[in-house]
Design goal:
Length: 419
Amino acid sequence: MTKARLFRLSVVVGSIFMILLIIVYWDNVGTAHFYLHTTFSRSHSLGVLPTAAQDDDQEALSDVDEFLEKLLSSGLRQNGPFNRKTEQPPLQASSKPGLGNLEENVRGYDWSTHDSRVSLDRDKLQDERRRTLKEFCANSSFTFPTKERLFEDIPNYELNHLIVDDRHGIIYCYVPKVACTNWKRVMIVLSESLLDQGAPYTDPLDIPREHVHNTSTHLTFNKFWRRYGKFSRHLMKIKLKKYTKFLFVRDPFVRLISAFRSKFELENEEFYRRFAIPMLKLYSNHTNVPTSVSEAFEAGLRVSFPDFIHYLLDPRTEKMAPFNEHWRQVYRLCHPCQIDYDFVGKLETLDEDAAHLLQLLNVDKLLHFPPSYRNRTASSWEEDWFAKIPLAWRQQLYKLYEPDFVLFGYPKPEHLLKD
């Protein structure tokens, strides 16, 4: 009996080894080869696999996990011709946003140098943020949708915001409207996933915006299934244990205001057709709505902020499709109760957090985070923006985004939720 089990195990391990050899030499990302040189060296729990009867198949699966982890921890690094990178056609790139780029211009980028601020104990601050996150994830009295599910239960399409850099062992969960354009630029430079005239980009701001948000530019978790098949979840879990994981968040209500400003106050054809036209028809009682955003703006037809809030609160909205990523809750984008993040940055302290993170990752000599911008969507604006929103709506909206407020330590906006 023992010989038979050993034979089956040797066959399984041999098959896995051959598959991994193919992955190592033919995968264009080089996932099985990475070296870790970050200062995050603490151990993470791998997460509990679903329990089942302890039969031979379960034992074999455990051996596979152990084998994959040992291989991925071996410190090998790929430098051969198979580490292919995406070469984009040469574009006129500038280190500052071009005049024609309304999306970045409206944000008011600040290219001046900042005076040094009073330094905080950044490590202590990170400990507090991570402790708050863990405490509320473990608090059974604080509930919200999807909180209790396991990582294995997260659908593949919900893992598309987790960007992987195998060269440095980093995983970044991007949150739209939280400096994600520049963080994506940083990830491109670190992973060398994009070439400019045959050479990897070295300055994040040289990367054109249209390439930054091209999904083919980044290796994300939701692409693993296509590359690794049934081994994809095992590889994800090992990377989540070994790699440094970070995200950046923002006051949820201010993020909503920012999303509204950039997607509906500017002429955005895609968002006009997908969202503005239905909003104008449903909530503003317009029957003959122009088919193009330029015609609508010329006619003075624009979605109002109350229309946008009405749309978010309308129960029909999510029956049609999940929230767009620009206003989807962070807990739904990044799964903070299923993924043990090493670093939680905030837009409100972006400059300090970015510098601290790059230093902790030991990449601060390779690049600097792009200059921050004067945030025209400030917290002090909340009262003005919500002045015309009925109190009952504000309270419903808070309940909708309450998990983001609580998990990431943002105070409840009492001044907006009471008469």
